[in-house]
């Protein structure tokens, strides 16, 4: 009985090895196609993609969600949204802090020395931003 089973396995080709080779070939081909596409994008399309990324990162989309009024159970208004303007700086991008503080102080109605101290402290503490003035009028 044993010789019969070995004879049938010798007559039939090894399909599992062929399947593995086909799948491996497809995967290698697929990886090559992706590698060629990546190289193409990084070389031939580099400038266009860099400009597109810059525009996407620096583009500002204005959103102005309006909040509803907060009312008590009698329908009296407790709170409402008020449009205000605020002004901030990025301390790491500041050059001459004394000059900048002297220029901004009259515009915001603050003391130049106080503003200079706040900016220096924010820069020393590596803050991402520092408020110059909040709740400004549109004219300011």
Descriptive keywords:
5 helices; alpha+beta; two-stranded antiparallel ribbon; two-stranded antiparallel sheet; elongated; 140 residues; 55% helix
Task: Walk me through what this model shows.
This protein has 140 residues and is of the alpha+beta class. It contains five helices and four strands, in the order αααβββααβ. A two-stranded antiparallel sheet has the order 1-2. Helix 4 packs across helix 5. The protein is elongated. The model has no long low-confidence stretch (mean pLDDT 83).
Summarize the SSE layout with pairings.
Elements: H1 2-11, H2 15-43, H3 46-58, E1 70-71, E2 77-79, E3 85-89, H4 97-108, H5 112-124, E4 130-136
Antiparallel strand pairs: 1-2, 3-4
Helix pairs in contact: 4-5
Beginning-to-end CA distance, first to last residue: 100 Å
Strand tally is 4
The helix count comes to: 5
The portion of residues assigned to helices is 55-70%
Q: How are the strands of the biggest sheet laid out side by side?
A: 1-2
Q: Output the helix-strand order.
A: HHHEEEHHE
Structural class: alpha+beta
**Anisotropy-based shape:** elongated
Low-confidence segments: none
Let me know the average pLDDT. 83
> What is the subunit organization of this protein?
single chain
Q: Mind describing the biggest β-sheet?
A: 2 strands, antiparallel
Gyration radius (Cα, Å) is: 34 Å
Which percent range describes the beta-strand content?
A: 5-15%
Concise account of the structure shown:
With 140 residues, the chain is an alpha+beta fold. 55% of the residues lie in helices and 12% in strands. Helix 4 crosses helix 5.
């Amino acid at each position: 009985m044993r010789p019969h089973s070995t004879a049938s396995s010798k007559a039939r080709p090894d399909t599992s090895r062929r399947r593995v080779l086909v799948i491996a070939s497809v995967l290698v081909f697929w990886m090559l196609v992706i590698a060629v596409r990546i190289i193409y994008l990084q070389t031939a399309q580099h400038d266009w993609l860099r400009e597109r990324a810059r525009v996407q990162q620096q583009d500002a989309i204005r959103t102005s969600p309006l909040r509803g009024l907060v009312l008590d159970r009698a329908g009296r208004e407790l709170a409402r949204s008020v449009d205000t303007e605020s002004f901030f700086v990025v301390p790491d991008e500041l050059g001459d802090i004394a000059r900048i503080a002297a220029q901004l102080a009259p515009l915001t109605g603050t003391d130049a020395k106080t503003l200079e101290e706040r900016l220096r402290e924010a820069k020393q503490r590596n803050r991402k931003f520092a408020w110059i003035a909040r709740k400004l009028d549109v004219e300011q």
